[in-house]
């Protein structure tokens, strides 16, 4: 089987771009921010991305509260995470991209590779955000290239990060080449110290919690922290019982920190873990410190 592209499918009323080779079937929803909605590992018939069991894909108005529209899949967040006002301009919740329909074009369509380019024009700031998604024949990986252009006459203070949501299932493990991590202050309850040497965090009882071992999906907990001082540009979650995993490979000079959000029944009774390689931290852009080696609050 060579690489195939279908552009005339629809999913829940939205155009669905389907890229497929012998190993993967990938579904992109350009009208929903260019979201990568599905990555199916065909040999295992295993969906790698998490889908919210209560919130289907639906179009959101610009400036909507992200959590109430969060259906899962893989979004990009730019130019911010939490709502913030920068130089008098309000940046919406979780940025602009996820709530804007993307223009798209086929860049390559051959038996060897299929490439789709998705483009957004900024609203609050004068930018163009583009990503090119490529699936090649015989590969078990999806290639995603990004290009962000500032059309203004001054530098912009922004966050840019990836946001793939993955299932949090029993026995799942988190993998990070980090030296230390900092727990976001809003999620520090139960931990003795916000900062810890990866992967062991001390909890209130004095015990050491191995953060590589994800809590049970019904543990009733929620974690959010920043992994810092990466020795390499990758992160991932594996599912040992299924002998499968999902990983991201990126340039650590551009994305020097990885944010980890995990709900194990603690947020809206959902079980999901999100890998978020980012240009800096913390979540509040006004307090942003790009890999400075210091706590960012």
**CATH class placement of the largest domain:** Mainly Beta
The number of domains is: 2
CATH topology grouping of the largest domain: Beta-galactosidase, Chain A, domain 5
- What kind of oligomer do you see? single chain
Which word captures the global form? globular
CATH architect. name of the largest domain? Distorted Sandwich
Distance between the termini: 51 Å
Which class best fits the helix and strand makeup? mainly beta
Point out poorly predicted stretches.
289-297
Largest sheet: 7 strands, antiparallel
Helix content: under 10%
Order of helices and strands: EEEEEEEEEEEEEEEEEEEEEEE
Query: Per DSSP, what share of the residues sits in E-state strands of 2 or more residues?
Result: over 45%
Number of helices: 0
Give a short overview:
It contains no helices and 23 strands.
Topology:
Blueprint (H helix, E strand, L loop, with lengths): L3 E8 L2 E7 L3 E6 L5 E7 L4 E2 L26 E4 L6 E3 L2 E3 L11 E7 L3 E9 L5 E10 L5 E9 L10 E7 L5 E3 L4 E4 L11 E3 L2 E3 L5 E3 L10 E8 L5 E6 L4 E6 L7 E11 L2 E9 L19
Structure description:
With 297 residues, the chain is an all-beta fold. It folds into two domains: 1-152, Beta-galactosidase, Chain A, domain 5, CATH 2.70.98.10; 159-297, Beta-galactosidase, Chain A, domain 5 (Distorted Sandwich). The chain has no helices and 23 strands. The protein has strands spanning 4-11, 14-20, 24-29, 35-41, 46-47, 74-77, 84-86, 89-91, 103-109, 113-121, 127-136, 142-150, 161-167, 173-175, 180-183, 195-197, 200-202, 208-210, 221-228, 234-239, 244-249, 257-267, 270-278. The strands form six sheets. Strands 6-13-23-22-19-15-16 form a seven-stranded antiparallel beta sheet, with no helix packed on it. The protein is globular. It starts with a strand and ends in a 19-residue tail after the last strand. Mean pLDDT is 95; it is low at 289-297.
